[in-house]
Amino acid sequence: MTPARRVVTLPPTVLGPDAVRFAREGQRRGADVLEIRTDLHAPDAVDAAALADVLPLLVSERGKPLPPAWVSAAWRVDRDLKDATGRQGSLEAPSGKLLASHHAERQLSTTEALRLWERELPPDALVKHVEPMMGPEHISTLLETQRLLIERFGPTRVTVLGMGAIALPARAVLARNNVLDYVAAGGTWAAAPGQRLLDDVVRELRGADRLTLDPPLRLGILGTSIVHSRSPRIHKQPFDRIDIPEDGPVETLVDSLLPHYAGFAVTSPFKLRLARHTRSPLEAINTLVRRGSKWESFNTDTHGARAVLERLGAKEAFVLGDGGATAALRTVAGEDGRVLRVLRRSDIGEPLTGAGVWTWPDRVPPPDSLRFERARVAVIAYGAPGRRVAAEISRRGGTPVMLGAAWFVAQARRQRQLWESAT
């Protein structure tokens, strides 16, 4: 199977010469196609011919007409099956350039989706079908829609996409048989919710053989605000960064993905919820491993917790927060004869002394009353979040001890061993 061509969309704030620089940078990082859309750029905001000299250009009609200069420079011209009124849209495009698309306003059954595509198309037209995903279980419907559209149009023409806050793993699974893979270049802007990061997709293609008939089992990390996570860089590919809202349906999501994934790393804020969902005897878990028709759960954070407490070197310590990381610290402290004082936000009063561990995610603001008095405080986050936590500790009178990498590496080694045993 030939890998899907990676499409990045030009952000609306990137204009003129900056657009050409964006295209060159995208090409350098592994993008195959650049998309420009009429709802994002005015006709004279970009030089379509200059962009087409860098990457094949996909021009997409979204509400406003396509400029002739864009069509002339295009590799493909994206026109919707239906116009804004719901009637048949114009599929006019130069020979060999049509990408016929439809962006559904709601989830469709496979029967409804196929009915849309009964319209006669040129034999060389590409086909793109997009639906919002209201629930994770819709992945099975999208896969069936993809299979039947490929039967109808052939394996070199079809792309099926899900959209929404929980769509990323569905898009990762669909990408194996898609012709196009729409991905986010990075930063704060994405053309559609649920897009994977370009760098993550390129990493997968470099680390896994997409041409095999039996693809490698997928892995992923589940969490909120995990763009900084290094897990996709160090674990076996394919490995997905599944960033979903804190109140997202993570339980239904992991159940729906059981046929498609061998395991997951679980990070904040889902360690406690997924422990309950998998009926784990553990208070919190950070690892799921597929065993036949169910998930088996583990907490390799205990390996990270032991590394941190040993490096702190204190027999007594306070812990800020009482979530999944604290559960691991509590387990290790009990085994090693250490005394932990677990402090929730409402417990913060007098300035804290001695040694401690900060477990709150950096997206959670600490209480205003938090102060330290010559305390050494371990930071178990890493990267930019870890630096932000360290700055807070210093600002409040403490000395940060950067142990995020030690925690991460220790628990990740054990995760890798467990995933290698997945069925």
UniProtKB/TrEMBL annotation:
Single Gene Ontology BP annotation: chorismate biosynthetic process
One example GO MF annotation: shikimate 3-dehydrogenase (NADP+) activity
Entry superkingdom: Bacteria
Name under which the protein is recorded: Shikimate dehydrogenase
